[in-house]
Write a structure and sequence with these properties.
This protein has a single domain, classed as TonB-dependent receptor, beta-barrel domain (Maltoporin, Chain A), CATH 2.40.170.20. A hairpin with an 8-residue loop joins β2 and β3. It is built from nine helices and 35 strands. α1 runs antiparallel to α2. The N terminus is likely disordered. It has a 22-stranded antiparallel barrel. The protein has a five-stranded mixed sheet with strand order 1-6-7-4-5. The chain is mainly beta and 781 residues long. Helices cover 11% and strands 55% of the residues.
Length: 781
């Protein structure tokens, strides 16, 4: 950041403050919206107290920027595996797809999209671990859902347009706030204040009716104050039938920064309405296997309309056909960050957050019994169709802090935070065809989940000499979870559990010369069970424990780089699906005593000339469960009456099996060519090896390996009447590969008494789009 700043009159700033105050204070009955107003009041006070403008010192401002996130981020010498990606890196492909899809080229990453085209519900896995085990923070504030521990990017469409940079730490990494990093952590930093005022608008269109429109504004630094704002709209019909997305979002930031103090107030949020495509597509339908489709129909007894859907939809099949089978959710985040440089040696940051979320998913269900909703009713056996909504109404509060002391060769951090979550779960009937009267919007279940999470950590970095760098990190974490009421399955919930975890980490880096270094580290992570584990499992599961060993080599030269990272992630009591079911037939997870992930991650890049460069990464791994029992339920019926005679769990022991969704090979590469100064063309490839749908390592329950190639192109020019005009093109899956990136499976016996028929296995997949494109234009003023 340059030392010069732009000036504006105090009248302009007072107008800005008045307008923002008006916006937030005129939301009726939303007293919690005073949060950003109070933050702006703090800024106003700082402005009135400032008698003379302090000349900006670029070094000091840069230090203040680091105060916010440096406590939880890895640096060049930190002995952990990590990758950084900047806003500039993402610009050419940020045309409407969700954040996970834009991170697909990072090492050890596999992404997926329910709707098949990267808009709507999307997911990310790192080293085979799913999103519930990937810690996500935004400006140091936890973002993972407190109960499921997952991350729902659909609630923050186009958030990448307000992101400055992202760091992905693989493995346990450094201590952070929120849920445990049990495979990776994703540390997101929002926009830095712009030095000069700007206006930017982006418009993109593409296959499957996908379109994106946004506008971003920034005031630049004026008398040490600045504002940033963005408004976005994304829509898509989806590759999968009816898998539409209607997404809107916004981002507003106002701040004050001088050579010693930074204050920023941020409000961002999103509203999504997404047609459900969660069910997946039966294997036979994906493969176009007419005989297999008919066999699926014969054993599942669909209605005539459902049968027609199965026979005629092809790989874009969507089980849901009700017009309003949608997920409808809105989430708003309020953040306030204060950083101060007390001296050359000491700085501190404190941040507050309030997140408000509320929404439902709507379902049409036919041939339901009244007793499924009101079991005590005298007419419990009456049947009818219903339209129901399952609601989540939640509040999340967080306070995090960090302090940094630097002197000579020592860099010391003390940090941590506290967060609290209140989630109200309830269901209502909005329509029914029961022969007896049911009042509209009647609640048929209600339960409350409460979770609190306290953590405190201390980190030390010590430069022993020009060759040796040491790192130590210790974290204490205390978690409580309570839940009570009636579940959506009409079962009583009564949970009251607490956990205390100690998570130490240590490592060392040795610098061989100006270009080469090696490092090694060991880190411990502990993780509590999630809501479903605690509310559905008849046996209380144990918490999980991970010891992560990392050893790596780095080569960094002006024209090329290379890294190699060996890892061994040793799990104790990892929770996995075993085929077992709860009382209402839903799958539950159970602890397995021993399991591990071991592999090597390779990265390399070479700039062959000013016009041409190549970057590649590959992960080769083994991901194993030492021993567990797989359960299949055996249903035997009387062939005369078809009444169930036997219903029992059949258990089979498995040893040294592959962990589900953990490919042994993940590889990616990009060839970049710039024939002109403002023209860049990229050829992007991704290979993902075979993935098993469960933990049995049975080939018939797996997804084939896939190799997908994309083409990107961007062109920028700078006419006299505007700062910049940019055109971006992204052609995905240019070779029209038919592949699936996610799925699930279950097996069961359904046979006459005494029969020895084999188990029936049902596989469901999530097909991804064939060749498709996105093209966009960005205007920068």
């Amino acid at each position: 950041m340059k030392s010069s700043i732009l000036k504006c009159s105090s009248k302009s700033y007072n107008y800005f403050l008045t307008r923002f105050s008006f916006i937030f204070l005129n939301k009726k009955n939303e007293t919690k919206n005073l949060f950003p107003f109070l933050a702006l009041f703090v800024l106003s006070f700082l402005a009135s107290a400032q008698e003379n403008q302090v000349k900006q010192d670029s070094t000091k401002v840069e230090q203040l920027k680091e105060v916010l996130l440096s406590a939880t981020r890895a640096k060049d010498k930190t002995p952990v595996a990590f990758s950084n990606i900047t806003k500039k890196d993402l610009e050419s492909t940020n045309l409407g797809q969700d954040l996970p899809i834009l991170l697909d080229q990072m090492p050890s990453v596999v992404t997926t999209s329910d709707a098949g085209a990267g808009v709507g519900y999307t997911g990310i896995r790192v080293r085979g671990t799913d999103a519930t085990r990937v810690n996500v923070t935004i400006n140091g504030i936890p973002y993972n859902d407190s109960e499921s521990q997952g991350t729902y990017w659909v609630n923050m469409p186009d958030f990448v347009s307000s992101v400055e940079d992202i760091q992905l730490q693989r493995g346990v990494g450094t201590s952070t706030n929120g849920s445990s990093a049990f495979g990776a952590s994703l540390n997101i930093m929002t926009l830095e204040p712009s030095e000069k005022g700007y206006a930017t608008t982006t418009h993109a269109i593409g296959s499957y009716g996908t379109r994106k429109h946004n506008i971003s504004l920034g005031s630049g630094l004026n008398n040490n104050f600045y504002t940033e704002a963005r408004l976005s709209k994304i829509m898509s019909d989806g590759y999968i039938d009816r898998a539409t997305s209607d997404l809107s979002s916004y981002y507003v930031e106002a701040g004050f920064i001088n050579e010693k103090t930074s204050v920023k107030a941020i409000v961002f949020g999103g509203k999504e309405k997404t047609y459900q495509s969660w069910y997946g597509t039966p294997e036979a339908v994906v493969e176009g296997d007419a005989q297999g489709i008919q066999a699926f129909i014969d054993r599942n007894y669909p209605s005539p309309a459902e049968e027609d859907n199965l026979l005629n939809s092809g790989r874009t099949y969507n089980y849901y056909t009700y017009d309003n089978e949608v997920d409808n959710y809105e989430q708003t985040h309020y953040q306030l960050h204060v950083s101060h440089q007390f001296s050359n040696n000491f700085s501190a940051n404190i941040s507050g957050n309030y997140t408000r979320g509320k929404g439902y998913f709507e379902q049409y269900k036919d041939d339901e019994e009244l007793g499924d909703y009101f079991p005590g009713s005298a007419d419990a056996d009456e049947e009818g169709d219903v339209i129901r909504r399952r609601w989540l109404d939640n509040d999340f509060y967080a306070l995090v802090y960090s302090m940094n002391y630097k002197k000579n060769n020592l860099n010391l951090y003390l940090g941590g935070g506290y967060n609290k979550y209140d989630g109200d779960h309830f269901g209502e009937l909005i329509w029914d065809s029961f022969p007896v009267s049911v009042p509209i919007r009647t609640n048929y279940y209600n339960n409350l989940g409460e979770k609190s999470d306290f953590n405190s950590y201390i980190k030390a970095e010590y430069t022993i000499n020009s060759k040796w760098f040491a790192f130590a990190d210790a974290q204490y974490r205390h978690v409580t979870y309570k839940a009570n009421g009636l579940s959506s399955d009409l079962l009583n919930i009564a949970v009251n559990e607490s956990y205390n975890f100690f998570n130490p980490k240590a490592g060392i880096t040795f610098t061989i010369d100006n270009f080469n270094s090696v490092y090694g580290s060991v880190a411990v992570a502990n993780r509590e069970p999630n809501r479903d584990d605690l509310t559905k499992n008849p046996v209380l599961p144990k918490s999980e424990r991970l010891v992560d060993y990392e050893f790596g080599y780095k080569l960094k030269a002006p024209r090329y780089y290379a890294t190699a990272n060996l890892y061994y992630m040793n799990y104790k009591d990892q929770l996995v699906l075993t085929g077992d079911l709860d009382d209402v037939g839903d799958p539950i997870r159970e602890n397995v005593e021993k399991s591990y992930r071991a592999g090597i991650e390779l990265q390399a890049g070479y700039k062959l000339s000013d016009a041409f460069r190549v970057d590649a990464n590959a992960t080769f791994s083994q991901n194993k469960i030492k021993a567990f029992n797989y359960v299949v339920y055996d249903i035997q019926y009387d062939p005369n009456t078809y009444d169930t005679v036997v219903y029992e769990a059949v258990s089979t022991a498995y040893d040294d099996t592959d962990i589900s969704f953990s490919p042994n090979v993940i590889a990616g590469g990009t060839l970049s060519y710039s024939p002109l100064e403002n023209l860049n063309i990229g050829f992007i490839s991704k290979y993902v090896g075979k993935q098993y749908l469960d933990n049995t390592s049975i080939d018939s329950k797996s997804m084939d390996a896939y190799f997908v190639n994309n083409l990107s192109a961007s062109f920028k020019y700078h006419p006299s009447w505007i700062k910049e005009v940019a055109f971006n093109l992204l052609v995905n899956n240019i070779f029209n590969t038919e592949y699936v990136s996610n799925g699930y499976t279950y097996s069961y016996y359904y046979r006459p008494v005494g029969s020895t028929d084999d188990a029936i296995t049902e596989n469901f997949y999530y097909p991804q789009a064939t060749t498709n494109f996105l093209v966009g234009m960005t205007l920068k003023f």
